[in-house]
Specification:
Elements: H1 2-23, E1 28-35, H2 44-59, E2 67-71, E3 81-84, H3 91-100, E4 108-111, E5 118-120, H4 124-132, E6 143-153, E7 165-168, E8 172-175, H5 176-183, E9 191-196, E10 223-227, H6 250-259, H7 281-291, E11 299-300, H8 301-309, H9 326-332, H10 335-348, H11 355-363, H12 382-397, H13 407-412, H14 417-425, H15 430-442, H16 446-472, H17 474-487
Helix pairs in contact: 1-17, 2-6, 3-14, 6-7, 7-10, 8-16, 8-17, 10-16, 11-16, 12-15
Length: 495
């Protein structure tokens, strides 16, 4: 079966190459839209995402390409970036906050962003101007890669829940349908690839359709994209923390898969699932789904196309149902899909032929009527109980710690700071507290575990709906195959 999957993948890759040889390939162009909507919403992680992407481009030999970057307030000298450096706070203050107060916003400051070579402020007007000037100069056969690392919001249009937004500076925004109008200005034959990590990013998957409307058919301009999450969910990631080791968001994993190194420079196992010697966009997307322990439910354009144009069997119509045997799903899956299904099965301890149904049951609420329905158990944090016990012991020693503004408490973080640090770190249960804290951070929360079941089911659904689309509509299936072929391209193509 593995050989058949590799053969099928190779045939699709050959199809992609043949399509490109006919079309020709001219040049790659890069457009980054980044930053928050205000200083308070412009976190350090957004800045670091752009810097990580720039490093990747340099390592891939792509730094010579035109890369237009719009970030936050542009080249303004004001303090526009929210930064949190807990290590800059004295240890006594950090421990006081941890055990007797609140760690929220501890070490929070603002500074000017440090993204080099910024073209301008992230604003709808600037982005529109880019498309009406620079964008119009692109040539047929060129490829435009758009990276969006920003915030996003739900659609405000009740008649179109997919018209989600990219939040831009000064509390403005760009809707999915507005971006479609900008893309329409590009010359015919320009291919568009997007990587978007904002909340509700999946609404932009419909930019592949004319006017962003599935009823109007696919745009003549090939548009594919990879999105951190679906249109009706927030995404993980934005934080003012400067420690990049703590960043857990879509593009951290996506770019690591492409470049072979994580944000800290550590080499990762290359997700070359089809063993053709390079990592495609599709494989990087699969790597995120399989590896990232986040709340995200990633989506790509071909999957959204299936949601629109395919379906499951609703009777005697010759189509597959959404609860078929796992072995049948695996037989129909591509190599990347097989890696996701098998990998998540291992992570989630799914086994047997009935695992699609088992995964679905795991996503259902445990409250309400029905067989075997029980109240959802609360997630236990044992470290919290030990922390409270340590704090209680210290309050018995120093009753003034009941209020962190008490003069005694202030003494203990200033002139007597060593005394406070020693008292906490030499407490008999301090060591076990730190161990429990690390264990809690490494354990998947119920929400993150549940979303992995969602990822498993979405992948299986896409496999089934691909086969059903093939049976339903030959023309739509050909359109779908063209999207898949484009998704299997790589970041650095031979020019």
């Amino acid at each position: 079966m593995r050989l058949n999957l590799l053969l099928r993948s190779s045939l699709v890759s050959l199809l992609a190459c043949s399509l490109l040889s006919v079309q020709g390939w001219a040049e790659d162009h890069l457009l980054t839209i980044g930053g928050g909507y205000s200083p308070a919403g412009n976190q350090a992680s957004l800045e670091r995402n752009v810097l990580f992407f720039q490093r990747l481009l340099e390592e891939k030999g792509m730094s010579r390409l035109q890369h237009d970057i719009y970030f936050a307030d542009g080249d303004s000298k004001g303090a526009d970036l929210q930064v949190m450096d807990r290590a800059s706070v004295p240890k006594a203050n950090r421990l006081m906050a941890e055990f007797f107060g609140s760690e929220e916003n501890l070490g929070l400051t603002y500074r000017n962003h440090q993204v080099p070579n910024v073209k301008g402020q992230t604003s709808p007007a600037n982005i529109r101007n880019w498309f009406s000037t620079t964008g119009k100069k692109l040539k047929s056969g060129d490829r435009l890669l758009i990276y969006v690392t920003a915030h996003g919001n739900r659609s405000s249009n009740r008649r179109n829940e997919y018209d989600t937004t990219i939040a831009t500076w000064d509390n403005k925004s760009i809707k999915m349908t507005e971006l479609v109008k900008m893309l329409d200005q590009l010359p015919e034959g320009v291919e568009v690839v997007t990587i978007m990590v904002q909340c509700h990013a999946g609404g932009f998957a419909r930019f592949m359709f004319n006017g962003g409307d599935p009823d109007l058919g696919l745009s003549k301009q090939r548009r594919i994209g990879f999105f951190a999450t679906v249109h009706d969910r927030p995404a993980a990631g934005c934080t003012p923390e400067i420690d990049e080791a703590s960043y857990v968001e879509y593009s951290s994993f996506f770019w690591a898969a492409i470049g072979g190194r994580d944000r800290g420079g550590k080499t990762i196992a290359i997700p070359d699932y089809d063993q053709n010697g390079e990592v495609s966009f599709e494989e990087a997307h699969a790597y995120v789904i399989l590896t990232a322990d986040t709340i995200d439910l990633p989506v790509k354009t071909s999957g959204e196309f299936l949601t629109v144009h395919s379906k499951f069997s609703d009777g005697d119509d010759g189509l597959l149902t959404n609860d078929i045997a796992y072995s049948q799903v695996l037989e129909l899956a591509t190599v990347s899909q097989q890696e996701i299904l098998e990998g998540l099965s291992e992570q989630l301890k799914l086994s047997g032929e009935n695992r699609l149904v088992d995964a679905w049951k795991a996503t259902q609420t445990r409250r309400g009527p029905g067989r075997n329905r029980q109240p959802a158990p609360r997630e236990q944090d044992k470290s919290r109980d030990v922390r409270r016990e340590i704090a209680s012991d210290l309050k018995r020693r120093w009753p003034g710690l009941a209020n962190v503004l008490n003069p005694l408490a202030i003494e203990l973080i200033t002139t007597r700071s060593n005394e406070l640090v020693t008292a906490i770190e030499e407490h008999p249960k301090y060591g076990s507290y730190r161990e429990l804290e690390l264990e809690a951070k490494s354990t998947l929360t119920e929400q993150k575990r549940k979303v992995k079941f969602d990822r498993f089911l979405r992948t299986a659904d896409n496999v089934i709906m691909t086969e059903n689309l093939k049976r339903l509509n030959e023309k739509k299936f050909e359109e779908f195959q063209a999207l898949v072929a484009a998704e299997r391209r790589t970041l650095r193509e031979e020019q």
